[in-house]
Design brief:
mainly alpha; about 80% helix
């Protein structure tokens, strides 16, 4: 499939799903990568942790945007969770089960 066709197909599929469901998909992908990395090579783990870290940095940036419509207290709580996850991901031996559980909780919240 050519990139123009792939881009068109992605846009068409995305138009039928809510932004929340699209966000949940991003968390599902990150969670799947973390799950696979648990049993994978050290390089798999580094990549999955880096991708998850970028996801949570983006979440933090979006939540700190004054135009964000979520209540301030909720935004602050999610940012705090993101900071805890970032600390965990920087550990020599991160707790993958913890990272996966938090991502799954966020996915469930976005999907529900």
């Amino acid at each position: 499939m050519h990139s123009a066709q792939a881009n068109h197909a992605y846009r068409a599929a995305s138009a039928r799903r809510s932004p929340r469901e699209q966000e949940a998909d991003v968390f599902r992908r990150a969670t799947g990568a973390l799950r696979a990395a648990q049993r994978g090579t050290p390089m798999d783990q580094v990549k999955a942790l880096a991708d998850n870290s970028r996801l949570w940095m983006m979440v933090g940036d979006l939540l700190q945007d004054p135009a964000n419509a979520l209540p301030a207290a909720l935004r602050a709580s999610i940012v705090s969770v993101g900071h805890a996850l970032q600390r965990e991901m920087r550990q020599a031996a991160p707790d993958f089960a913890f990272l996966i559980a938090v991502n799954e909780d966020v996915t469930a919240g976005l999907s529900g």
